[in-house]
Amino acid sequence: MDEDALSRDDVIGKVCITRAMLAEHPKGYSGWVSLSEVDPDEEVQGEIHLRVEVLGSQGGRRLRCSVLEARDLARKDRNGASDPFVRLRYNGKTQESTVVKKSCYPRWNETFEFELAEPAGEKLCVEVWDWDLVGRNDFLGKVVFSVQGLEAAGQEEGWFRLWPDKRRGSLGSLQLQVRLRDETVLPSHCYQPLVQLLCHEVKSGRQDGQVHLVTLLDETTTAECRQEVAVNLVKLFLGQGMVKEFLDLLFELELAKPCEPNTLFRSNSLASKSMESFLKVTGMPYLHSVLGPIIARVFEEKKYVELDPGKVEIKDVGCSGLHRVQTEGEVIEQGRQHLQSYLGELLDAIVGSAPACPPVIRAAFRRLFQRVGERFPQHQHAKFVAVTGFLCLRFFSPAVMTPKLFQLRDAHADARTSRTLLLLAKAIQLVGNMEPAAGRPKETWLSPLLPALQQGSARMRDFITRLVGTEEESGEQEGEGRPLGPPPAVVKEGLLLVHKTRGKGPLLAAAAGKKLHFSLTGESLSFGKSPSRIGAIALGDILAAEKVEEKSFGNSHVMQVVYMDTGGQQETAYLQCKCVNELNQWLSSLRKVCGNNPRVLRSYHPGVFRGDKWSCCHQRDRTGLGCDRTRHGVTLQDWSDPLDPTVEAQRLEGTPGGRLINPRSDRGGLGGEPGPFSPVPRDSLARVDR
């Protein structure tokens, strides 16, 4: 696209990637692809509802075509809609329907007849056009019928896809890296032997002299594959409510190996990768609440921070008083003050965050703390380092260094800000190492920061003591014997504008015309003025999540959430996203988590009811059936439910290590008999190339 500030963006060209093209490159395609001109006669969409039949006897036969309605037509006008009409061509004759103004979901209900030619070799062409008062009409698509086929069938009726008219050449090229990844996920019962096998091992705990399946997984997976296996296992056990027990088993097995206190959990073993993945899956909202303010401050201030004399650039700092150029020592001292200020604010946020840390994370750290303390009773310092090794070195520090990868920022930092973040991440690592007071950082130029680091280590020790405090255990036991379960994983969250409409539901009454913070979990869609919560809609009450026509609100990034309120009344909330990517992510997320709702709608109105009619199809019945079909099964981004045990089991079955835990022989299922895995060819499983 060519961006225009004062008018609509202009299209430069497009790239079309076919499934056949990707099938020729199993490991992905990387290279230049020719740009094709975007022909308005080729870029069509939508469907038309027609009934075509041959009437009469041999003496006077007629060809009748009933044009009923159309849906999801291309938007050709600046108002975000079209003025469609239908043109029918047969045997050199043309007929046209009336024009339906400002609608991509028109209803005509008109019938047209032609005298049937003898022999009936001509084709009937039904074209849809957008009428324009000034300039030429825009082509919206066509359907072509073979009259000979109609004679044999007698009648055809249904929804027909509109097709383009012609194609043009190429212009320019675009460099892309594309990969197609197929995943065939069977019903949940097909993976029950695998899930039960894994759960049985976790429930049994560590057994002396026994070869554990997770140990085999650790030893048979490659280093690059182990991270993904760890994510799959963590999500699977989160879905089973056994993630604490799974992590505890990994801690036991890791501590049973010959190891030293100062190198504990520093390798890329399955235990280390699983704990790291567990923190990312369950702790991202916590991470954002702790790091968000300090990261925003660093990005806004853009101060020059440098402590390494070999990298100090005097020209980047400027002058100090009476236009005197600062010395290298002054630059380093100023950088130390800035960095110490950032570090102090960050440590304040961390040490005060124990109550906000998710209970399931605190429970996992408590078990790690206890296991390491039992394994190294003479090195009580080791149990603190084991916790900070994960929390600081594998969670906080990487997020500080590259905040975009942890969704803390929308874009990567510039060179100056990136250097500040790197030094701050290094400082957090040194604090997390919790070296004794006499310890010094390897980089001697970090020595000016040593007093702040030693003070930070002492504060971190107190924080870990509160984080794994025994009062949490009593709270866990008071829950009527129930194990402490994970909080609902946040699938998608962000600010959305709530448009004013006639609705009276709790969401509309709360903030019509305002921005609210929305949070989607596996249980509900909650909303409120961040961080407070006004209300929530249970997933079982969400009936549809669909796009809204651009003309409805003058914006192409609006979606609608159709839901049942507490009184059993159907309401619709219109929520505006900031861009098309965010719109697609929200729609994909909502459709995925609500896909099994028994009350989902089969049709909806893509417009809004304004005045006395729907803007999309011009119907006057506000509660009538929708004019377009819903798209519950369509996901618009590469998005997956963070707690989908079936998918995780399928992915595990497709890993190299999965061969060891797949309870089937090469000849069939359990005990040589046909099992649930038998009909699944291994080349149909996702990511089998690993």
Structure description:
By secondary structure, the chain is of the alpha+beta class. It contains 19 helices and 21 strands. The chain has helices at 19-23, 147-153, 192-204, 213-220, 223-240, 243-255, 270-282, 284-301, 328-351, 359-375, 381-401, 415-433, 450-467, 471-477, 506-511, 550-553, 580-593, 645-653, 658-661, and strands spanning 29-36, 47-55, 62-71, 84-90, 93-96, 107-115, 123-130, 138-146, 155-161, 170-178, 490-498, 515-521, 524-528, 535-538, 542-547, 558-564, 570-576, 603-604, 609-610, 613-614, 628-629. The strands form six sheets. It has a seven-stranded antiparallel sheet. The chain has a four-stranded antiparallel sheet with strand order 6-3-2-9. The protein has a four-stranded antiparallel sheet with strand order 5-4-7-8. Strand 13 (524-528) and strand 14 form a beta hairpin. The longest helix is centred in the middle third of the chain and has 24 residues, at 328-351. The two termini are 37 Å apart. Residues 44-160 form the C2 domain.
Topology readout:
Blueprint (H helix, E strand, L loop, with lengths): L18 H5 L5 E8 L10 E9 L6 E10 L12 E7 L2 E4 L10 E9 L7 E8 L7 E9 H7 L1 E7 L8 E9 L13 H13 L8 H8 L2 H18 L2 H13 L14 H13 L1 H18 L26 H24 L7 H17 L5 H21 L13 H19 L16 H18 L3 H7 L12 E9 L7 H6 L3 E7 L2 E5 L6 E4 L3 E6 L2 H4 L4 E7 L5 E7 L3 H14 L9 E2 L4 E2 L2 E2 L13 E2 L15 H9 L4 H4 L29
Helix pairs in contact: 5-6, 5-7, 5-18, 6-7, 6-10, 7-11, 8-9, 9-13, 10-11, 11-12, 12-13
